[in-house]
Amino acid sequence: MPDRARVRSRAALLRAGFEQAGAAVVEAPVLVSAEALLDLYGEDLRARAYTTFDALRGEQMLRPDFTVPVVQMHMEGGAEPARYTYAGEVFRRQEEDEARTNEYLQVGFEIFDGSDPEAADAEVFARLQHAVAPLGLKATTGDIGILMAAVDGLNTTEARKRALRRHLWRPARFKQLLDRFAGRTPQPATRTALLEQADPFAEAGPEIGLRSRAEVEARLEALRADAAADPVPEAEVELIEAILKVRETLPYALERLRDIAVDLAPISGAVERLARRSQALSARGVNVEALEFEATYGRTHMEYYDGFVFGFVVERRPDLPAVASGGRYDALTRELGRAVGKPQGIPAVGGILRPGLMVELEDGLWA
Fold first, then answer.
1. How far apart are CA 257 and CA 65, in angstroms?
2. What's the chain's average pLDDT?
């Protein structure tokens, strides 16, 4: 392990660089509300977070990242546009992966500005790319917004679209749902048997547990409506599958996605945003001709991103976490803005660096 003083020194240098780019230094509490995080990420977060209980404040978590508390702070009264930077420890359980530490320093850079989102995306990427340039890392980009647009454009019920959006970050579950909604696989036999009963409550016992009878009846009605809905057109499912297979350098990926958009018009806006981002990246000096774009990138570990996503990794060590990563999270600002009367949110993008891992790589610890 590298000397902690060296890691803190590197973190300070990285943060100072973002300050020079106009970012204000912010601090975030080490303990954050578990309720807010669980509402955003779901109960799966408990497997990755350290929790405790406070008699006055309820369940608390050691911060798993800075983005949520920084967004909360900004939505409560930050000026717009705004830039922030920070440095401090984050805490995540790593019970099955010894290569990943459960406490590490994180340095971040966030931009809240809706005037030119693609230019902001490009700036965050370029500044982090510059910071890790000596390490020879592989950069990969993606865009969750294209897949979201494809789901929103399906000819199916709103309930099915909500289910697919909710599981965008769980690829296996997403595919299971898509196949079932398209009629490729039948619904579970137990569900079919349940819905065929004239009165599912005929032999039910007294009400117990957390769900009331009214809630169960509402769920049954939703299941009946889903069973009666027409299947998602096979052609649309095949187009989504074509999107998920896109893995090219950015110019070729853009060309392929434009071809798909001819038959799946709802993604056209997201694809053109990708084109504008490509131009903005090039203007920042990024070699987009060699920059990899992967349509599925970020789907397993970037739950709150809803647009541009990126990461810089050690190509020869896929077991290591990304040295730098980030993306766009407009929807998160809307979600957290509701609590303070700002449901419109504000376009926002950011990225983080792991100074400890940077120092370790420089020392050849992961050769």
1. 32
2. 88
